[in-house]
């Protein structure tokens, strides 16, 4: 039965080509990942990130690479979260292309993509999220806050963003 598909027949040459072609496109696409949200800052140098860190209480940063399939998969979700939750001075969203802004990626020890980092008042300090357990993709600090999310984990990313997007006791965000 070598070479037969699940129906017992030989795969057609076209079906093999489609698989080979789709995996080739998936893993070799290096075109810039499109950004659909005007609320996501595209960081092009370290000084831009430093300015943003100084001007907002909470910042979510997506460290990505154009050649990374999981980065491409999570990008629309990140943009949607920015559209729903960005609030000037309170919660901002940024993207750092690790191939173009290596200094920033190195500063924060980013070695896998995508990596999402969380900053509070200019320093790495993520939200405490009820119900989120540490796991391979979610690194927690000693006090239970999210340190980093490694990989395309939309559930953990959404939970972290929503923790910061909640209104405070005074009704402001």
UniProtKB/TrEMBL annotation:
Q: Which InterPro entries match?
A: Thioredoxin-like_sf, Thioredoxin_CS, Thioredoxin_domain
Q: Where's the Thioredoxin domain?
A: 27-166
Q: Which UniProt keywords apply?
A: Disulfide bond
Q: Does the keyword Disulfide bond apply?
A: yes
Which Pfam families would you find in this protein's record? Thioredoxin (PF00085)
Segments traversing the membrane: none
Does the keyword Disulfide bond feature in the UniProt annotation? yes
> In which family does this protein belong, per the annotation?
Belongs to the thioredoxin family.
Q: What is this protein called?
A: Thioredoxin domain-containing protein
List the source organism.
Pestalotiopsis fici (strain W106-1 / CGMCC3.15140)
């Amino acid at each position: 039965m070598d070479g037969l598909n699940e129906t017992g027949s030989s795969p057609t040459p076209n079906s093999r080509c489609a698989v080979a072609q789709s995996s080739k496109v998936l893993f070799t696409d290096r075109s810039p990942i499109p950004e659909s949200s005007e609320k996501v800052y595209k960081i092009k140098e370290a000084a831009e990130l430093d300015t943003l860190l100084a001007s907002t209480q909470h910042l979510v940063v997506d460290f990505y690479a154009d050649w990374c399939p999981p980065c491409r998969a999570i990008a629309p979700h990140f943009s949607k979260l920015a559209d729903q939750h960005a609030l000037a001075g309170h919660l901002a969203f940024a993207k750092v292309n690790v191939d173009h802004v290596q200094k920033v990626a190195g500063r924060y020890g980013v070695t896998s993509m995508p990596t999402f980092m969380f900053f509070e008042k200019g320093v790495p300090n993520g939200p405490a999220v009820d119900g989120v357990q540490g796991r391979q993709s979610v690194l927690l600090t000693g006090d239970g806050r999210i340190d980093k999310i490694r990989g395309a984990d939309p559930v953990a990313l959404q939970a972290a963003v929503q923790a910061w997007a909640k209104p405070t006791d005074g009704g402001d965000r």
